[in-house]
Amino acid sequence: MNGGQAPLTIDRALSDTADSDGAGPTVEIAPTAIPLLAPRNGPVTPVTDPIALSRLAQAMGGSTSPIALDAERASGFRYSSRAYVVQLKRADIGNVLLDPIALGDLTCLQAPLAAAEWVLHAASQDLPCLAEAGLRPTTLFDTELAGRLAGLPRVGLGPLVEQMLGLHLEKGHGAADWSIRPLPANWLNYAALDVEVLIELRDAMEAELTRQDKLEWAHQEFAAIVAAPQAAPRIDPWRRTSGIHKIRDRRSLEIVRQLWLGRDDTARRRDIAPHRILPDTAIAAAAAAKPASVAALIALPVFAGRVQRRQADRWMQAIDLAFRTPEVDLPPVQLVLDGPPPANRWKDKHPEAAARLAVAREALAALSEEVSTPVENLLSPELVRRVCWAGINSAPEIEQILTDAYARPWQIQLTASLLAKANAATA
C-alpha cells in the first residue's frame, strides 16, 4: 500500500454495534479513508506475449483460491463490446493485466480458473466480454450486487471500498477509450486498482450479508447470473433511438429504421460507436422533417456540420428507401406486446389492474424498508406488473408464475403471499 500503511481489517470495517436481529446495514464508514493510489506491489505491465500467457495459465492451475476479475471496454468509442484490458488478481500471483488485442483470446486460462470463485463488481457488465474472450465462471461473487442486497447506500466500487474497507481508490478513467495503444501508465494504474482489494471487499461483503442473514440470498443471485442464458437479440433495436417517442406515423418510423440500419452497418464495419457516425438526434429530426432532397436534409441544423454534409448522399439514400417501402411493409407505430401494456396506460383503460399494482407497489416498498433491500432486487418490476395484470390472488399460483420466470426462491418466499394479498385486496 502507498506509504507503507496496512489496509483496514474487515473487523474494523464492520460495525460492532449491529442489532441483535441482524436487520439492516450498520456499516461504519471511515471518517477519513486511506488513499490507495497504486497497486501495493508496484506498476503492472500488460501481458502481450502468448508465451507469457501460457506460463501464467500453468502458474494459475491447481488452485481454488478466489480470483478477482475486471474488464475494460471502449463502449463510447467502439461498436463492439469486447474487452480491451482484462484484470486479474489472486493472492498467490498478484496483480495481472492482460491485453486481449495482442493475445487474441484468453481461452487457455479457462481450465485453470474453472474451479475458483470469480469475484467481480457488477458482474453482468463484464461477463459478456469475458465470455467473448473465452472465459466463463462456474461460481462467482458479485460485490456490487452484494451491496444492493445488504441495503448499502452507495454500491459503486469506489464508494463501496470506502464504506467497507476504509480505503479511497484512485479512479477516473472508466469511460476512456481503452482500445488505444499504447495505454497511458495512469490508465493501467487505474485498471490494476479495480481488482487490487476486490478479494478483501468480497470477504467484507460476505461478513455483512451473513450478519443480515442474507448470504443465501446472495448465493442464489450469483448462481442465477452464472446460469443465465445468453441474451436473445432485441426485437427492433432501432426503436430505442432517442426521440422516437415523438414519431407517430409509420412512414416516419420507416425513415428512423432505414437510417438506423444504415448507421449500424457502417458502425459495425468500422468498429465505431454508432452515435459517432450519426447521432440519434439527427435520425429523429430527419424522420420528423421527411426531407425530399439532399438540400432539404442538410438544411436541418443537425445535418449542417461538415461531417454530416459529406455523408448526406448516403443518408438521403436511406431516406429514399424509406419513401419507396410499400405501405404494407411499414413498421407499426407500436409493437404487439407479449405481456401487459406499459403501466402508465393502466389507470384509464384498466383501472382494476392499476389499483392492484398500486397496492402491490406500496406493500413491496414497505417490505423493502423492513429488509433493507431495494424494491427492484426483491422482485423485478416486470414480474410485479405481470402478476398484478393477471389479478391472480392465489399464492401457490403466483409462486408457480414466479418460478417459471426464474425468480429466485428467496424472492418467491418473500413476495408471493404479499402479491396475492395485494390482488385480493382490490378484487
TrEMBL record:
It comes from Nakamurella antarctica. InterPro entries: 3'-5'_exonuclease_dom, Exo_C, HRDC-like_sf, HRDC_dom, HRDC_dom_sf, RNase_D-like, RNaseH-like_sf, RNaseH_sf. Residues 1-25 are annotated as: Disordered. One of its GO terms (biological process) is nucleobase-containing compound metabolic process. It holds the Pfam family DNA_pol_A_exo1. It comes from the Bacteria. Transmembrane segments: none annotated. This is Ribonuclease D. Residues 249-329 form the HRDC domain.
